[in-house]
């Protein structure tokens, strides 16, 4: 906390600059999001309105009400573009100042960790992690087809001790759903689209600033320093908490997640479900001590975490409603604890190597 306070004092001029931009950006961004929400709800309900009020729609289109409606529609889109253009321009300035604040914070936490604002965690790396589910593709080459898109940018890379780490902010759009057989189910695509845009307004775990993304938050890639032949995936076990024993039956049917791995650690199995290609290798990776450290890390983060072990790397994803490497946009940067939370998130991410004991000789080949 003392280190955070001294950092805040040193960066106070930049924080004041960022706060002015934050207020403007927040206003235009929220306004633009309301326009999008109105449009999505319109698309969702228009077919039903047209079906049940076909005669009324025909009459409106023939009289002066139709002209008024068209004028209002043009006015709606003009306002929308004004809000979005202003939000984008102010957002660019805001993110630039955010980057100027971030590097000194990284230097204080661990020297040598460098932030690159333009570079990003690539879609190939996200796909390689196997943390984003895939579906049966309707056509095309499954191996060459890109299934996810990262709209986020900026990552920090370097070493924690002798262990290489890359961590960045990701905003993932999962396109595999729209290229799957699910899109042929009537209204399912419309429901999925509406769900992704409406959910953030009613959930504390999702931000309206990231509507339309299937995942946004922190993505970390760490050298595991151990030879891995197959892959092992560790996911939050929300189903287990709700359905108990019968959850195991349901989970075993998730064929796209390989084999269900049953582990003999009560605390771990309450929090996570594990899939993998090799039962023996999964148990070798997830030793009792390692599972206890993962449970402790989850409690420390106070958020659901996803991990995978593939190609001699540990991948980890943790959802952050306001994004990672991002100052909280819903709090005053000067008078609230926004900066302290910003530093804490970064410190927790850097501490993953130590928390999971990944820098000890036992993990080296």
TrEMBL record:
TM region positions: 32-52, 64-85, 181-198
Record-linked Pfam families: DUF3137 (PF11335)
Transmembrane listed as a keyword: yes
Keywords of this entry: Membrane, Transmembrane, Transmembrane helix
Domain of life: Bacteria
Protein name stated in the entry: DUF3137 domain-containing protein
Phylogenetic placement of the source organism: Bacteria, Pseudomonadati, Bacteroidota, Flavobacteriia, Flavobacteriales
